[in-house]
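Sat 14:20. Reprocessing the chain from the morning session after the first attempt stalled halfway. Input below, unchanged.
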Amino acid sequence: MKQKRVSVVAIVALALVTVTTLFLGVLGYLSYHTQERNEYEQLQQQLDYSAEQLAAAVALPLWNFDEEQIDSILDSAMKFQSVYGITLAPANSKDRPRTIRMRDQNDQIVSVSTPFATEGLLKAGHPVVVAQKEVGFITIYASPRYIQKQLNDVFIQAVVSIAIIDFLLVVSLYYVLWRLVLRPLQHVKAYAVLVGSNEALPNISAHHFRGELESLRVAVMGMAELLASRLRNMREQSSEIAAKEQQARLSEMRVQQILTASPLPITVGHLKTGVYIRVNPAWERHFGYQEADILGKTSVDLGFWKDMADRQGWIDRFNADGRVSGYEATFRMRDGTSKIFMLSSERFLYGDEECVLTMSVDVTERKALETELLQLNAHLEHRVAERTQDLDHSNKELVRTMETLQHTQTELMQADKLASLGSLVAGVAHELNTPIGNALVAASSMAEDVTGITRALADGTMKRSAFDSFLSRVAEGSDLTLRSLQRAVSLISSFKQVAVDQASERRREFDLAQMLNEVIDTLKPNLKRASVKLSLELQDGIAMRSYPGPLGQVIINLFTNAMAHAFDERGTGTISIRALRLDDSHVRVLVSDDGAGIAPEHLGQIFDPFFTTKLGRGGSGLGLSVSHRIVIKVLGGQINIRSKLGEGASFELTLPMVAPEVVA
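Finished this time. Tokens:
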């Protein structure tokens, strides 16, 4: 079916009309809303002015109870079309108006006794004052329907104007494009039709061509001459292509001869799909299949590969090098047996298709001989092992020396652990000082109040206001004392649990977020003494069966390390602690800072015992080494570090939710 063409004039006209309509529509939209806002503001101003004038007009009649004069004034005010209703209420009952005027559905002015619905109406109210005394309140309501009617008329006029402008624009644009573009292009089209014929090409008249179209006329004529020349060349080359096709057929015949004569199994497969195109008789003998059984199928369809990893390895090597040489793989034969082949593959053109030619060499027997050779080597290794017994004796001496060193290192780690616990005690004691001090001040104040109220009772000078004030102060003091003591109890409980956990390596069940919060509560005093912020992101509901004490020791060590090293120069920063579940059996804990970072040359030594950049300035070099040992040996997890100078450091702990029972 021939596709229907769209005129360029139509596309240009549609685009220009669309842009113009959108532009005028946006301007009209803005003008419409501006006029609407102005009309509403003007109507509100008129209402405010009318309310003020009516309040002044009905003041004396209302004071004199002249109902007839009041009705006359209100009826006169209702003659304005924009006024929907008027209510007049006494000063002492503004919510219950006594006189009500409104317009009914036929736009007639009626007097009603009950208030009408005011939703969607504009209103203005003003008090009625006589001799500086408010005697009533008048409210005027206006309906915006007349404004909407005027705005709708403006909207229709704008739409009609835009339509007229669009029509004039399309007509003028079509006339200009026809004169300057379309008519010359029709001449070019008629000339282009003659290019494919054998007729002589005439010149295109330059009468209707102007500006860039004149350049197009010259270019088209030159292109037509070039195409005619190339068409002649293509006819000459067609015979050469036929000769090459004949050579390709001869090449296929030679490949067929090679496949038939080769004693090695050979397959020809499609490069993209992998389906077999040809196999030779040697392949049929080795694999037990006939060529008709496998054509159009892949090696995966036939289940040749014993291990699919071998297939993926062959594909990766072929994609990387464009060929494969000496690749070892195990195939299943048709009878179910397995054989090992050495594969060599090359890309080549078979007819018009890109294909892969694979030659296979059966090395099953050679691999069996290699296995026997390996067994002989194993026997030789046994004899060598017997001669190394003397070396084992020397190694035992070395092991005893290493055990002594490890014992010393363990004692140093325990000392560092106790030092961290002591620092934790000092921090909690400092934190307890505030709530206990607040409780003491509140208790002292209440004692003084009790003494004062007792004295007043004894003297007989007790007043109700003094007793109420006493009760209020006692309530405030009791509340402050209770909250302060609750805070102290919370801190002591957290410290108690952390201290017990750190003093023992007992595996128990605990909530990870709760345990980390308890440890963090003991670290917060250190934050107050420094200008460092703490950011927490702890996932709830992570139940672990592990060692909370050693885990808390690791968190404390990493926190202390960040406080000691990360913010030396600027003194401020943020330490972040995150905990989240990785899967059903593992969690991840991240302790990071935005401080100075770690030099690249130090990253490889960061977990070595006694390595520190503050040797002689309070650094023992055991904190991170102890943490590494706890994570690996006790918690059964992994700890990694990522850091760049100037971008902070991040320690990542990957831990099993159930720690190993046996502590290494």
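The chain has three domains: 1-199, 262-367, 425-656.
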